[in-house]
């Protein structure tokens, strides 16, 4: 399964949320991560995120794509490499 | 076709890029938009973005999902409504 995960969390929690996502997925840009992951590991990732984020204020968006063949990614402009833009 | 579009542009150009994307897609959070769109309208949108963004500095990520049935979106925490968080 391929997933895209976007977060919108209070600035105080950005670092912690980013760190959890980085363990499981690849950072794309700003608050967006993506990668191949199993449902089990994704659940583990979300459980960890639940301990860092505030569900009354923060948002985590998860897009599960059953088969990556159904998705085509195109980058226009500069493709940032993995860590160069890390906070 | 369903698309997710994420942008990473210089702060000076965020407003202009956001405005173009808002014409074609639905704003999800921060620098992420999504929605159902035809390839023709997406091309038009990207052509407009090309006039606003700087390809040597900025990045636009486009994820085309052939059939939205292949994708499942889940929001954890607060689902922000469309305009409440607009810059």
TrEMBL record, chains A, B:
Keyword Nucleotide-binding part of the UniProt annotation: no
Keywords annotated in UniProt: Antiviral defense, Endonuclease, Hydrolase, Magnesium, Metal-binding, Nuclease
EC number: 3.1.-.-
Binding site for Mg(2+): 8
Cofactor: Mg(2+)
Family matches, as SUPFAM superfamilies: TTP0101/SSO1404-like
GO biological process terms on file: defense response to virus; maintenance of CRISPR repeat elements
A Pfam family: CRISPR_Cas2
Gene3D superfamilies according to UniProt: 3.30.70.240
GO MF annotation: an example: metal ion binding
Known role: CRISPR (clustered regularly interspaced short palindromic repeat), is an adaptive immune system that provides protection against mobile genetic elements (viruses, transposable elements and conjugative plasmids). CRISPR clusters contain sequences complementary to antecedent mobile elements and target invading nucleic acids. CRISPR clusters are transcribed and processed into CRISPR RNA (crRNA). Functions as a ssRNA-specific endoribonuclease. Involved in the integration of spacer DNA into the CRISPR cassette.
PANTHER family listed in its UniProt record: CRISPR-ASSOCIATED ENDORIBONUCLEASE CAS2
Complex formation: Homodimer, forms a heterotetramer with a Cas1 homodimer.
Family: Belongs to the CRISPR-associated endoribonuclease Cas2 protein family.
HAMAP family in the cross-refs: Cas2
Protein name: CRISPR-associated endoribonuclease Cas2
Annotated source species: Lysinibacillus macroides
Lineage of producing organism: Bacteria, Bacillati, Bacillota, Bacilli, Bacillales
